[in-house]
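FAQ: What does the model actually see?

It sees only this:
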Amino acid sequence: MSWESSETREPCKCGKGFILNTTRSDDWNRFEYSTRLQCDECRKKYTKYVYEYIDSGMSDLATCWVDKELYSSFKKKETELKEFTEQIIKECNEHMSKAYLTRWLAIFNDVPRTKKAVWELFKKFRITEYSYKTFCAYTDKKYLTELIESKVVYGNRHIILPAIGIEHDDFLDNCQDKVKEYQKTRDDANREMMKTAFR
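And it is asked to produce this:
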């Protein structure tokens, strides 16, 4: 099986070199892409940045070259967002368990601890995407109560709260607002970085 290659060249930022784009394909319609910055001057200031984007509902990857200092600032904000979000989720999970676990379990008081009965109630609340067959395959009957308890987490707040009659939770709302602030800071850094990007 042989691979065929094609190359294109694009001007770099300073104009003293170029960007070399290489595409390889085989008889099975498999493709490989690579891009290299062939400019000593630009390599001092710019670094490769690969990011995901959505086109016509499909996810794909794109590559560009961005200022190293702006990239470092963006990555710092991205890391801060990730770490903050992880901490917030942990705090929200603890809050939900403390505030709502008992009321959530009460919904299941009269539900037999059988896979069929628990799955049917999960489907009613749209808290599982599994078919009954798949649910049975991945669920141990001995741990049905633990499984019910495990659903009381931040990611299920839009299901759990209405199910127990809670319209909103100030603590969860405030946490979400804080995450949005971090997201905005990250997004602002990304926009600033992309202003001088080239591909």
